[in-house]
């Protein structure tokens, strides 16, 4: 239900400029984070509770609290299975609960981790990064299982030790666990099944016939299916996706959530866009970046990722960007922040490609009719953004002046020679 609602509820603009838009997914994740951060440090009742609440009622209340805590962990696991949480979030959650600190974790924190890992184990183990994390989690749990106090007594109860071992055994068995077959039956069906069970056991089937095997922590099959847009009426045949703006936005949202470049590559290619459609896709991303301040950085990052993986070409970017750059100064009248998207895009492209940066995409800024002052400020904004993102001293300057085509374009804008360009850029604080 949650997975379905994420695409049905509207997106509300942020209350304050610079904040992210309010979506169902964001509100849900914020609520989960608040619940997790409010996890009690101890599940022992306070002295005040012991004095005010009868013992039986207090036991029931403590059980409710514990059940809620474990249910929240299972819910977090299911958000991960439905690709609403990234792997790194799971790593942070486990670290917060049982990471190596001054004090050993409380028993209920270990229970939380066991509940979470059982809910996601198979899916987490299925990726290289997830497998490494799972091995680290298992090693930490094993250490906790054997932990002892100074007097030689076990730090944790037998119940917790068994719970840890059950999880480790489950992973060792490929996350396959046996479940007792349960379903409503009539008296006649019970008698018939009892006779059938007796015959099976007589033939050597044993008690295994009374159980079914289930894999713990498997991602629901409908999740992968739902990623394919154009289901139903929009699908021309099974497995085909429809290349449209909604599809491009969707796969970019997947990338924004997980920063999985390989998945972005696969999703883009799955629609097998033509060259014209690829240009159109870049136009959609650029339009979002220029017009929606909350999305400018992720759109810049997405375009850079597509270029670096050669899913799109520099020519595609140049063709899509040209008309927008030609009218950028006028666009600022209606969209005052549009230049900040250009800064974000230029900075990411520079840092990613450095001296291999293709300056041809900037031709529209150096043509006749363009304001050299506006263009110079525009380029400087991108250079300074690159320096903020991690460019070392003079490294951004080197990326510009040691790229002949780029240096000539920037020098033309500044109305100076390429030899003077380095000192001019350094005077600007680069």
From TrEMBL:
<dbReference type="InterPro" id="IPR003890">
    <property type="entry name" value="MIF4G-like_typ-3"/>
</dbReference>
<feature type="domain" description="MIF4G">
    <location>
        <begin position="17"/>
        <end position="173"/>
    </location>
</feature>
<comment type="similarity">
    <text>Belongs to the eukaryotic initiation factor 4G family.</text>
</comment>
<dbReference type="InterPro" id="IPR016024">
    <property type="entry name" value="ARM-type_fold"/>
</dbReference>
<keyword id="KW-0648">Protein biosynthesis</keyword>
<dbReference type="GO" id="GO:0016281">
    <property type="term" value="C:eukaryotic translation initiation factor 4F complex"/>
</dbReference>
<dbReference type="GO" id="GO:0003729">
    <property type="term" value="F:mRNA binding"/>
</dbReference>
<protein>
    <recommendedName>
        <fullName>MIF4G domain-containing protein</fullName>
    </recommendedName>
</protein>
<keyword id="KW-0396">Initiation factor</keyword>
<dbReference type="Pfam" id="PF02854">
    <property type="entry name" value="MIF4G"/>
</dbReference>
<dbReference type="GO" id="GO:0003743">
    <property type="term" value="F:translation initiation factor activity"/>
</dbReference>
